[in-house]
Amino acid sequence: SFSHISMQPSFSIDLNAPFWADIPDADLENVYKQLEGGLGDMDDDMLDIANIPEQQPLQNTSLPALFPTPSATDVSTLRGGSFHLQNQYNQAIEQAKQVIDQMAQLHDHQIEQINKMQILQRQIIQTGKQSNEELAKQQYTLNQQINEELKRLRELNKTIILSPAELHKSRILGQRLQIQQQGLDLLCRELSQIGTEAGADSLSALVIEDQPIPQVTFKGKTLENNFTVRLLSGAGVEYQNISKIKAQLVSEERTWKTAKPLENDEATMDFYHRIATFHNLKIQVSSRMSSVYLKFGIQVQQVSGVSPIIQSHPSYPMIVITNESQWCEAAGKLLIMDCFAGEGEICWAQFANGLHHHFLKATRQEPGTPARAIKAHEFDFLHKRFFNAQNMVTAQQANRFWSWFGQVTQTLRFKRHIATLWITGLIFGLITKEECHKALEQQQVGTFLIRFSESYAGLFAVAYVSDDPNERVKHYLVKPEDTGSQKTLPDFLREKPQFQMLYVLDVNTGTLQTYPKDSVLSSFYSKGKRLDSEQNGYVLL
Questions:
Q1: Which candidate, 103, 104, 134, places its Cα nearest to that of 116?
Q2: Which of 349, 348, 354 is nearest to 334 (CA)?
Q3: 80: Cβ–Cβ under 8 A, 6 or more apart, which residues?
Q4: What is the pTM (predicted TM-score) of this model?
Q5: What are the beta bridge partners of residue 278?
Q6: How far apart are the C-alpha atoms of 515 and 524, rounded to whole Å?
Q7: What b/e string do you get for 279-299 counting C-beta neighbours within 10 Å, with b at 16 or more?
Q8: Please, how many CA atoms are within 13 Å of residue 400, restricted to the half-sphere of its CB?
Q9: Whole-angstrom Cα distance, residue 506 to residue 511?
Q10: Contact 224, 212 (CB under 8 A)
């Protein structure tokens, strides 16, 4: 999410500024008409549900083409889905995609413009000319363009629940625009100092170019993501030598008793490209449920003779835990901090986008191309079930919601086989009892599907068709004692004769089909000896 971006006041965009003369006017008018208008053409109804475009099929997880039902059940019919509303929302998503793509094109063009500015500014410095008013005006104009682009990205994040691809693009684009702005700020300050006695110490900056969203990590385990750091400078700054760059673990609340709280904390910076990547960072202390950050520092020796020490701003926050039981609480703190940024309430779309970022990270999926993202009907389920379909979400509501959804996410992250079962649709997941009845009422005895229990966070319920004429669809809660370290959920399902045909969700088409349970679950069964249900006269229940 972009709740952490400190936005500047909006400025009007001068499309006649000379700096933009080399861009076709028609292109600029088209882009900024959309930027200035935001998403104003979208109907309010479009913002009440989420739409996630269909994902690419997960490799090597295709289900056997055996015994499918003659006709698949469309999940949207279980929730009374409106095709018209879904179609409207698809159009809104497409409009958002176009805006993000056009802003990405502007970002790329701005790189070229900043490079031209650097060349011109270096010539001004070398010739000893006084500050150039025209160049200063161009830099000011470009800064306002970037401000406007960041503002529109933030508005987009508040207005509509983005697809994973656009959500990822908007986050990366926001980071890159902020770095562009920092580089431009160095040029502006350098230009204002030409002809003065001001030193060049402040004309370098260290920025974190690539970093993960706020995350929970384990003490002593390698961080899942690399951190890439770039050195920015004014046009006239020349380096004679650059030291190794060092990472440091910092906290607002405590100091570390150990001499080395961070391992693999040094990296060599590419002298010409001025970039360094930290691999295999490992934190060796617990943060005790408080946030910690990474900061990066470097010393440079300039040709001018000065040798400043340059430090980056802090990274996004992390919480370092020592055991799995702490994960849910820690992840919830980071989610609320990232989404709300100190505010008491935010709009539903903003929270949903932030939640999606954190969920995809927690389930170890590629953020732009996840195998199974949170779908439209699932966001709709969460919105109605936990937030009464309200447009605004309070931090208190979000905390209550996480007390349930956090346990679900923790189960997906840590329990054996569960993530794979969910990603491939063998576990349906988010569905109400009533919807289970709609899905199963016309199916044969023994058909079942697996959902997350609404009453018992982190546990599963199995809805199945029984031969009881008074209660055809029944629900069984899979209790903690039903599974364990030696017995997984597939093992439990395997030994129950009441469960014969698994109702499987095709995560790409949103349809349900039945398969014999052994045909889709056998690869997950433990290798130990299975008791025969009629062996030695005993019957398994």
A1: 134
A2: 354
A3: none
A4: 0.82
A5: 227
A6: 15
A7: eebbbebbbeeebbbbbbebe
A8: 11
A9: 5
A10: yes
Spatial distance between the Cα atoms of 46 and 160, rounded to a whole number of angstroms: 8
- Count of other CB atoms within 10 angstroms of residue 388: 8
Q: Which two tokens stand for residue 367?
A: 């953020």
Residue 139, strand partner residues: none
Q: Is 236 exposed, middle or buried (0-12, 13-18, 19+ CB in 10 A)?
A: buried
3-state secondary structure of 519: helix
In sequence order, what DSSP letters do the residues of 460-490 get, joined into one string? EEEEEE-S-TT-SEEEEEE-GGGSBTTB-HH
pLDDT tens figures, 180-216 = 999 999 999 999 888 776 655 679 999 999 899 999 9
Contact 314, 294 (CB under 8 A): yes
Q: Considering only CA atoms, which of 497, 394, 512, 510 is closest in space to residue 450? A: 512
Task: Output the furthest CA–CA distance in the chain (Å, rounded).
Answer: 100
Q: pLDDT digit string (tens) for 73-101?
A: 777 666 665 455 566 667 878 889 999 99
Half-sphere exposure (Cβ direction) of 7: Cα atoms closer than 13 Å: 16
Q: Tokens 């800064």 label which residue?
A: 143
Closest CA to 173 of 144, 143, 187, 152: 152
> What secondary structure letter does DSSP report for 456?
S
Cα angle for residues 175, 261, 178 (degrees, 5° grid):
10
Q: What are the C-alpha distances in Å from 219 to residues 56, 166, 332, 360, 498? A: 35, 33, 18, 22, 44
